[in-house]
Design goal:
alpha/beta; Arginase, Chain A; 30% helix; globular; binds manganese (II) ion
């Protein structure tokens, strides 16, 4: 079943600090590559942060995440899953943004992901800020609204910023619900915390049926109980998984633009992903890693570890 072409470079053959860094040391198979049609899960860089409203930098995320991902090995330590043998995985390169235009970038990204869907390639994206998730969903949700499990400190459900701007990293899931890319009754947001502008996002969540699990409830109930409810909410139909690195406490993941204290540990950050196994995951992302604020590289390493966990879940359906 496993195709040797799609095998990552082993640290026994070439040390992990050597070579051109691709995601998890996978082959680089961009859309014009002859083997592109054989890719089943495409690891994509989305180097774009024009939706950022405060501290910028996630446009540099994919480069740093590729570098950190050379530390990722072949086998999951708990489940024994070997994702690179279970599916043809490849680094399919970056989706190119236009840093001078939000509307043009949204269109470019949407076209890129629509092509992946047409080729039956499921994307695992490294952002980029959280606005990246909107054109991803526009590209892959063509068969009808998806469910979503969303890890974040923030709902990203605001209507608009700065007097009517509809496209920021605080609004992607409001747009996605309005555009029927997501079914709000099958959306669950986990880890929400921090001071707020107002209640507008939470009012929308309640009115539309989005389940918001604040950090207090998450900590009181624990990972297994919360994730059992999340699985029940999304059910067996197709879903998207969106993971904002600011879900994790800034003690563990300081390199992000909008950190919120009082969050999950790095262990809990991985553990939540171990409850995604068997779900019908059509795509996933890890967003908001900002290298300029990641002075030790710890955030990027945790980010790629989360990506490996999500990849293991994606091959387990
Ligand atoms: Mn977010
Ligand atoms: Mn956030």
């Amino acid at each position: 079943m496993s195709d040797p072409f799609f095998t990552p470079v082993s640290g026994f053959d070439l040390p992990r600090f050597a070579g051109v860094p691709t995601f998890m040391r996978l082959p680089h198979v961009p859309p014009d590559h002859p083997r592109f049609g054989d890719v089943e899960i495409g690891l994509v860089g989305a180097p774009w942060d024009s939706g950022t409203t405060n501290r910028p930098g996630p446009r540099h995320g994919p480069r740093q995440l590729r570098d950190a991902s050379t530390m990722i090995r072949a086998e999951h330590p708990v489940t024994g899953i070997r994702p690179f043998e279970a599916a043809n995985c490849a680094d399919i390169g970056d989706v190119g943004p236009n840093p001078a235009s939000i509307p043009d970038t949204l269109d470019r990204f949407t076209a890129f992901y629509a092509n992946l869907k047409a080729q039956n390639i499921r994307p695992l994206t490294a952002g980029g800020d959280h606005l990246c998730s909107l054109p991803i969903l526009r590209g892959i949700a063509g068969d009808g609204p998806l469910g979503m499990i969303h890890f974040d400190s923030h709902t990203d459900l605001y209507h608009s910023y700065f007097g009517g701007e509809l496209y920021t990293h605080g609004t992607p899931f409001r747009r996605a619900i309005e555009e029927r890319l997501l079914d709000p009754a099958r959306v669950v947001q986990i880890g929400i915390r921090g001071t707020m502008y107002d209640h507008e996002d939470l009012d929308f969540a309640e009115k539309s049926g989005v389940r918001v699990i604040r950090i207090e409830e998450f900590m009181a109930r624990g990972v297994a109980d919360v994730m059992a409810e999340a699985r029940q909410i999304v059910g067996t139909s197709p879903i998207y998984v969106s993971y904002d690195i600011d879900f994790i406490d800034p003690a563990f993941a300081p390199g992000t633009g909008t950190p919120e204290v009082g969050g999950p540990t790095s262990f809990q950050a991985l553990d939540v992903c171990r409850h995604l196994h068997g779900l019908e995951i059509r795509g996933a992302d890890l967003v908001e890693v900002s290298p300029p604020f990641d002075q030790t590289g710890a955030t990027a390493f945790l980010g790629v570890s989360v990506m490996f966990e999500m990849l293991a879940a994606m091959v387990s359906a």
